[in-house]
Amino acid sequence: MYKPWVLMSLGFLATLSSCANLIPANLPQPTPMNINLAPSSLADLEKAVNQQVNQYRASKKLPPLSVDPRITQQARIHSQNMASGKVRFSHDGFEGRAKSIAIPYQSVAENVAYNMGYSDPVRNAVEGWIKSEGHRKNMEGQFNLTGIGIAKNAKGEYYFTQLFVRSR
């Protein structure tokens, strides 16, 4: 039952491999999701992303990022739009999301990811960002606020958006 699901995921990743700035190389092999486990709420997964990113920042002696609900709202909208197919998996519209945050800021950055078929989709996304130079640079940036949005579509694909903000 899982093999077609995993193969579909790998095939899709292969077609996007030319987008080096979006999909990190050397992704770990997917593990089929255990359908017997109760699914975590998306909000719990968003908290897990923040925790893992802050653990990574701590390992680099950087201060933790505080989650701001206004930023999270914009991240969730983008993830939901990607998951539904309303927009393609990309950073398209980033400037609009930044302007919609409604927080005075000095700088803003964004990481996006998607995956399917992993037992720990959060860890897969965060590890992918760490392995990607541009995404890692955002994680290590001089930011103090963040917002994280995750959406899951009917196919079981998880879409992640993390916005990083340095407030004034």
Number of strands: 4
Q: Mean of residue pLDDT?
A: 81
Strand-residue proportion: 15-25%
Instruction: Write the element-wise H/E pattern from the N-terminal end onward.
Output: HHEHHEHHEE
Structural class of the helix and strand makeup?
alpha+beta
Poorly predicted ranges (pLDDT <50, ≥5 residues)? 1-39
Counting DSSP H or I runs of 4 or more residues, the number of helices is 6
Cα gyration radius (Å) = 15 Å
Biggest β-sheet, characterized? 4 strands, mixed
* Bulk shape: globular
Residue share in helices? 40-55%
Distance between the termini: 51 Å
Strands ordered across the widest β-sheet: 1-3-4-2
Please characterize this protein's 3D structure.
The protein is of the alpha+beta class and 168 residues long. The longest helix has 18 residues. Strands 1-3-4-2 form a four-stranded mixed sheet. Strand 3 and strand 4 form a beta hairpin. Helix content is 43%, strand content 18%. Helix 2 packs parallel to helix 5 and helix 5 crosses helix 6. It is built from six helices and four strands, in the order ααβααβααββ. The N terminus is likely disordered.
